[in-house]
Specification:
By secondary structure, this protein is an alpha/beta fold. The chain is 41% helix and 22% strand. The chain folds into three domains: 273 residues, ANL, N-terminal domain (Rossmann fold); 189 residues, 3-Layer(aba) Sandwich (Rossmann fold), CATH 3.40.50.12780; 180 residues, GMP Synthetase, Chain A, domain 3, CATH 3.30.300.30. It has a five-stranded parallel β-sheet with strand order 4-3-5-6-7, with helices on both faces. Strands 12-13-14-15-16 form a five-stranded mixed β-sheet, sandwiched between helices. Strands 2-1-11-10 form a four-stranded mixed β-sheet, with helices on both faces. β24 and β25 form a beta hairpin. α2 packs across α3 and α16 crosses α19. The two termini are 42 Å apart. The relative contact order is 0.08.
Length: 657
Amino acid sequence: MVQSSQATDGLVSIPALLARNVSKFADKPAFREKEFGIWQSWTWTEAHEEIEALALGFLTLGVNEGDFIAIIGRNRPYFYWAMVAAQMVGAVPVPVYKDSAAEEMAYVLAHCGARFVVAEDQEQVDKVIDVQEELSKFEHMIYLDPRGMRKYDHTALNQYSKLQDQGRAARNTLQGEIEKRVARLSYDSTCVMLYTSGTTGKPKGVVLSNRNVIQTSKNSVEFDGLRQDEDILAYLPMAWVGDFIFSVGQAMWSGFCVNCPESEETMLTDLREIGPTYYFAPPPVFESQLTNVMIRMEDAGKFKQWLFKTFMAHAKKVGGDILDGKPVGGMDRLKYALGNVLVYGPLKDTLGLGRVRVGYTAGEAIGPELFDFYRSLGINLKQLYGQTEATVFITLQPNGEVRADTVGVPAPEVEIRIEDSGEIFYRSPGVFVEYLNNPDSTASTKDSENWVATGDAGFFEEKSGHLRIIDRIKDVGKLADGRMFAPKFVENKLKFYPDILEAVLFGNGKDRCVAFINIDLTAVGNWAERNNIAYASYQELAGHPRVLETIQNHVETVNRSVAEDPMLSGCQIDRFLVLHKELDADDGEMTRTKKVRRVVVADKFKDLVDALYAGDSEVSTTTEVTYEDGRKGSISATLELRDAKTVQVAAQKVAAE
């Protein structure tokens, strides 16, 4: 493997890329943010001035090289500037999930030994203050929004803008120190530390170097031909590696503009206004957007519904082929062009995806029906496979070779091998440096030759050379009769339906599979309103007989689809229930990146799993929940357990083979 550091022409740090962009793209937009309904914009020159002022301010506080600076907030230019400013002074930025509970935050801040925290507002400041006695190295906090902060003790508190003013005032005396620290940065200096989602235990601090970030950003930008005039919308958690690469790594390498929405609530509106050309979203976001489309179509008149169904059926037939440049008949092309005027174009504009040249999804497998829906509209949606430890990119899908059931070919400079166990290993310039303060985990994850164990099971297709992911290797098992058990395959098919938000499949070592299902409150609530069905809570709606009947139809349709796959036909759902509560990160059932913690769910709801396998028709349960203000409580419910039809012939055939 060749680590081509020379290819970066001496651009060995993010501050070096910033300086190049100021020189090359001075007056072009670097950052935008919508505030009070108006888009604010900063050029590369203006952004550099803001970043440098903050870096000088950090020096006035005594920030040393190697210090950890935690950054807590939503996607705002100020926090991206804080990350680059930290790098300028030789410190290490550590973005933290803003919706973390105080205890989760305490773990991260204590683990990395953060001396400084940059926080968004009073809510985040209060979380840190609540746990500061557990933080032996914490010294000072900088806050962005001054509302509610006037009466706080400012001995160890600074307002962001005032710290910048302090930096500007000290420019003459500290400018030389900034320049020396930037000059000392190398390709092997630490660029950022990002914490894993902690699906199976405590989050680990993944140390990424400038080499990791810059080389993988360069390679991925060249792979997809990203340009300086791209627009992206930065709305995903800043603590997630994907956002760091897209909004810092690739943005700094390409010089394109990072657009920040006004709030989570206005994100879809802001998406439509920006019309990004380069867009990333995990499957749940695409699922949510499709759900909103389907809800709107159910409320539309009969003619519009007919128009939508007619042209979407045609798009499903030829849209993907047209996008991939494959031969399609003249009449089919003409009908598709008409559909683009009447349906596809307006729909893409409504979704905010009308200008997308390159779109990606990752984080977990996406259902093929969902994936094909977006591609049929002419949206160049592709899949990538990656990890925090890889600085995102392991595989990418080349244009014209995009399929729902694979994740593409190895990304540039990435090597992949498949062990006899089916586990995927890789090495690349993006391979992480280490897990902070955790040499044992580092050694068990990557070996002396820099090969990293992904924990995922998969295989390369012989003809296409594309990688297929089966599931997490710890989740792949066998049914009692020896057939393969791969829960994600079935769960993703279920989640294609707009009224199913989440699904969890059980069956490893058992004679059959059972499932938990969460309904999507938005979609099912809309259905209830249109049908004059009154409900007072999620729990009441989830247990409604008509809702259960609809979910059963979905389960049985999925069973018929699963039965067609000879390798996984044993994963049909024999029995299921609709949970009385949504799986929630605050209750420990999901990670902050919305991944199900299977072990936690199986343990927490063991009584429900046992009842499904026992053949009970109903079960009463009480579950502890966490409210938005952090208080604990409990909810009780009696759940109906349902049998689902399975395709026995296909299952018996596979067993016989």
